[in-house]
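User: I'm writing a tutorial on reading structure tokens. Could you give me a worked example: one chain, its sequence, then its tokens, then a sentence or two explaining what the tokens reveal?
Assistant: Sure. Here is the example chain.
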Amino acid sequence: MTTETTAGHERPARMRADAQRSHAKLLVAATATFAENGADAPLEDIARRAGVGIGTLYRHFPTRLDLQAAVYRSQVNAVCERAEDLLEGAPPEQAFAGWIRALAGYLVTKRGLSHSLISSLGRDSELISSCWIAMRDTADRLLVHAQEAGVVRPDITAMDVMRLVHGIVVSSEQAPDQADRLLSLMFDGLRARPADS
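And here are its predicted structure tokens:
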């Protein structure tokens, strides 16, 4: 049987159907609980929210760090998968804007999760490095797609986009209703001008 490593611990890659359901419910519950209450939210609350016992949580995630790492990786995977859907089903400008909004939504929910993981594992850990590369590569693909279509300025980089989105999310933490307006202003600034084409 193959195994998958989370934060230094291995777990079976193939689980029984009921174990898979419990695992998925725990990830959903932990994602919501960490978003609402931060990365140090009580594990008992997560188990209760998932409708399982605390022992089940510990069987799937032996430590808080394992659970945090699994949530972090699943969130990054979801944001990157959203990009694939948008690239296949939307025009370049809509795909780019839709993914930026998805990225902003993800960043809003982190509430100390990445800080906790970086403190525990280090910025150069496999988890942080691989997730960062996946996000940067995804941003780059969408950006290049939009630039090639002539809808986004050619002098913008993926790092520019990620920094701008991060800045908007941080600056609107106390006024979340302003985030969408700020993202719209950012899109206006990134839009290709006649001189660019």
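What the tokens reveal: The longest helix spans residues 64-89. The two ends are 54 Å apart (CA to CA).
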